[in-house]
Design brief:
The chain is α/β, with parallel strands linked by helices. Helix content is about 30%, strand content about 25%. Bound molecules: oxa(dethia)-CoA.
Length: about 325
């Protein structure tokens, strides 16, 4: 028993911050940034809020759906690590703009960059054996909280949003493993700014992700080699390459598509999903891994088995 993807869409703001812009702001270079991260530029929301980005992504995701489907959306989760305001919650603010009905469970979820993965776990349990639909909208604007004099963080983050609509299916299978480790000193926001010990987060991700991927595959009785696609949090291309090397699998199965977007935090995985749909890759995927990690420290890995043929759009 599992879930299937009905629709996905992302919204990337028009503002752009290039490596050359950053060279003028901090002591860094285009060469260093490209070598250490693979990044060329980042999308920046400027005046757009996370609520506005969430609405844009949500509208695109729901655009081709009929009213009968919209009426079946009974849960809306907005994930973010960069809420400007806590009350009212963003999810409540976007129910009406998205044309959703009032009989909906709508709430926000923050677990740093792992938020989207944890939201998926809730959705899978909520949808089980129902004919309801679930909308997950990830929207983050880290540029509100980045110190543009701190070269250790400002080179990494970009802004964006993505929405995915899911329903239950008895044909696919869903497995997950989550971990939360209390470590408030590695990645945190204090006052206005995000502080990050990038090297520590890097080591944490590279050290723990492969083991959890193996564990979730064992749970789902799938060999790691039989996973067609690994959609990992687009935090840093080198983290993803390192995981691919550990399994001795081709880079193509570990797409890195954030070079001109940046690390967007919670939307990074659903943005990548929309890119994989556009490239006609997700539709052909039988076994799919989604994995997020970040502040907390938090980690979540999902195996969608038999996924490909059940991607509807
Ligand atoms: O999405 C949430 C989770 N976050 C992440 O997953 C972030 C993971 N971490 C990273 O992506 C990387 O750690 C960074 C890109 C943030 C940093 O790259 P790094 O290869 O880990 O560099 P580092 O922090 O170990 O620093 C290496 C050197 C240091 O100089 P010394 O001490 O060796 O002289 C830094 O001061 O590079 C220096 N440095 C820079 N130099 C030029 C740090 N940032 C920069 C910079 N430009 N922007």
């Amino acid at each position: 028993m599992g879930i299937r993807l009905i629709s996905a869409a992302s919204h990337l703001p028009k503002g752009r911050l290039t490596n050359f812009d950053l060279e003028k702001m901090v002591e860094t270079s285009d060469e260093w940034i490209q070598q250490r991260t693979g990044l060329i530029s980042r999308t920046i929301a400027e005046d757009e809020t996370i609520t506005e980005m969430a609405i844009e992504a949500g509208k695109k995701c729901l655009a081709d759906l009929n009213q009968e489907t919209i009426d079946k959306i009974k849960i809306l989760i907005v994930t973010s690590a960069s809420y400007l305001q806590v009350v009212p919650h963003v999810s409540a603010s976007i129910v009406e703009p998205l044309g959703l009905n009032r009989d909906i469970l709508a709430f926000d979820l923050n677990a740093g960059c792992t938020s989207y993965i944890y939201a998926m776990d809730i959705v899978e349990k909520y949808l089980k054996e129902t004919d309801n639909y679930a909308l997950v909208v990830a929207s983050d604007k880290l540029s509100d909280y980045v110190d543009y004099t701190d070269r250790g963080t400002c080179i990494l983050f970009g802004d964006g949003a993505a929405a995915t609509l899911w329903s239950y299916t008895e044909k696919a299978e869903y497995y997950s493993i989550n971990q939360t480790i209390t470590n408030p000193d590695v990645l945190y926001r204090e006052g206005k700014y995000v502080h990050m010990n990038g090297a520590e987060v890097f080591k944490f991700a590279v050290g723990t992700l492969p083991g959890l991927i193996e564990d979730v595959c064992e749970k789902g009785d799938v060999n790691v080699e039989d996973v067609d696609l690994f959609l990992l949090h687009q935090a840093n291309g080198r983290i993803i390459e390192s995981v691919a090397r550990k399994f001795r699998l081709e880079d193509e199965r570990f797409p890195v598509r954030y070079q001109n977007i940046g690390n967007t935090s919670s939307p990074s995985i659903p943005i990548l999903m929309t890119q994989m749909l556009e490239e006609n890759v997700l539709q052909k995927t039988e076994n799919l891994i989604l994995a997020g990690f970040g502040a907390g420290l938090s980690l979540g890995v999902i195996l969608l088995k038999g996924n490909g043929q059940y991607v509807v759009k």
